Batch of 3 targets.
Target 1
Amino acid sequence: MAKKDQTPPFPDGQAPGKGKLKLIIIIAVAFLLAVGLSVGGTWFFLSKNAKPAESTEHAEAAVPGKKQAVYEILAPAFVVNFNQSGRQRYLQVAVALMGRDQAQMDALREQMPLVRNQLVMLFSSQNFDSLVTPVGKEMLRQQATSSIQELAKKATGQLTVEQVLFTNFVLQ
């Protein structure tokens, strides 16, 4: 009877719960180490990228030859319609002009009816199917930029508009 009360020895010499406890502790330590490395790595890379951005801001402001951008927002937004396969389609575009010289932008503002007319004609001559793609939108923006630059060169004698930007673009 005394032999039945004795527990048989385990082959590895450990009690039955100690192996599982060690495994749980090792998994918990590995998890905490992974979380710590993840947080530390994220902090390192974010703080590393933040410093050069600040220095480039100061470097752009320190460059004497490059003026700060001046924006002229053309309000109201342009709305043109298309007739595609018997179905009426619409395009709404909000446009901003970017230049570097405020005096030249003011001179161009006097020619705003010509600028708006040029853009309306350009937008209404487009194919709806091409404007659905990002490439088509970029091509339209580049066409608008070259068209307005040509008009501004005639009006002011200088390259007044650096870029035409679309601040809102809706197709329906």
Target 2
Amino acid sequence: MPHVLIVDDELNIRRVLAAMLKREGYEVTTAADGEQALAVLQKTPVHVVVTDLVMPRMSGLVLLERAQAEFPDVPVIMITAHGTVDSAVQALKAGAFDYITKPFEQEELKKVIAKAARAHELERQNVHAAAAPLVGASPSMRQVYEIVAKVADSPSTVLITGESGTGKELVAREIHRRSSRRDKPLIKVNCAAIPKDLVESELFGYEKGAFTGAVGSKPGRFELADGGTLFLDEIGEIPVEMQVKLLRALQESEFERVGGIRTLKVDVRLIAATNRDLKALIADGRFREDLYYRLAVVPVGLPPLRDRKDDIPLLVEHFIAKYDQRLGKKVERVDDEALQTLLAYGWPGNIRELENLMERSVLFADGPVIEGASLPDALRERTPGAATPIAAVGPLGAIAAPSGASMKEIVRQAQAELEKELIGRALEETGGNVTRAAKRLQISRKSLQVKMKELGLRGGEGEE
């Protein structure tokens, strides 16, 4: 169950919100100010932060800025009084996931937190993607760089396509960074994280009284991105009935809030991304052809890692440096056997899978060199040129998946295998001591115990 951190200087509010969320099944931690909140974030895995805007010692905006820099995968929800709504909108432009105003309905807060938790679940494989650079010198990546350089400062809509884990969000951020809009907001929307009945209000905002629970007006993501860039990730998940409204907003640069009659005009550069085959969705009647051509003014196709293996040594070097710093290690390189194994593997999870593997390898490395023998057996068993059936491979290599299993089922099983191996090794190396294993894995003892129960693992005698 997701772990929510509540940050508010008023004790009663912390107690009320904690009790409400615990009834919903959430794990809850509270903090009285931003400094306490950062201390919690540094020690405990948190999925969602709910923070007051105005607090002593460290305001909600400063906390948001620090969280964005240090924990960019954790959604931050702002709670604000009506008189400071402008500051809340400023927070959204600075990267806050959402905001609600006092007094608020408990159901409204529950929905926003549930949406944020779902977004975190979808994004959790992309930890620190915001700070990661594009890495690669292969011909296919040089072609991507050339396209980015040519279109970055134009107003043209860009459609980024590629398999999951190929770095589509990084390309979107690089386009924004190189444009003249770089000092304006880059607003990201994960379309897969939004319930279908909320997509319109999420994109275009709503007026007071537009629907039950709309106790005030609220700007949508198009308004927040005015003058900047709007990145619609997983664009293939937009409901068909919403696609015509999105098309009009793109063509006319105007729209109305839900429940509103005033037409709003904005200056927004749109970038969309998908790992779906939009032309197949068009054939099935699930995606509008006119919207597709409006989005794909500039198509950017990202190659899978298996088609750019020349970049693997550069990526390995980059991830070793990244996780050396984050984990306090002093790993310098991989040995020749390990590099050959990495080059021979099919990488169905693309760069994301390679990054996860390198984080694990750096974490458990006993010296300055990652040896081939330390790589997972399933990875080392892959032979050069061997086909890698996507339905049978996860982050650890060959995963026995039921015939006809969906991608979600395969990913879920692969994740469970990876977690089981990491936890099993941590327990082995700490003599079965759950507390020490949790510290080694940098998760809370309670979270580790829950995972051990889920995976059928047991600690030794020294669990205290």
Target 3
Amino acid sequence: MTKSILLVGVGGQGTILASKLLTTGLMEAGFDVKMSEIHGMSQRGGSVSSQVRYGEKVESPVIELGGADILVSFEKMEALRYLNFLKPDGKVVVNDYEINSMPILSGKAEYPINAVEVLKRKAATVVIHAAQEAEKLGNSKVMNIILLGTIIKAMGLEEIDWEKILRDNVKENFVDINLTALETGKSLV
């Protein structure tokens, strides 16, 4: 049975790196994996989404509307934007974090003040504070690895050798903090 994971965020949050690490781990575990990514103005703080599908045989990299087992959002407004991709019994992991988009910064739109409440009404939702957790670890850039840890735990993928994946794909100086961030993320769901 194919599982579908949708990661969404804003350019610069490390969404694509988290997706690539997830894909690498799944492939090394022997799954057929397909990944697709969309960088909508990602360099300018625009919306970024990455779809990872895995199983015995995956036919398509694309998650259809209502097809995601889990939606992991690095920024809470992005969770609302992609909520219609979630299965009726799917789960949401949302980072309680705000990044104002250009329409909001320019005054053409307002940030939804009750994003988390809306998510909780519509789906099984776990709210995490990855930015605060990353700050506690001393490096705000590991927020994405904390969120990767939530996926690993929520999808039951702990048996994969994530330490090896990180050692093989992260600069040596940052391996230890990333391993700690991964464990932090797993403890949050």
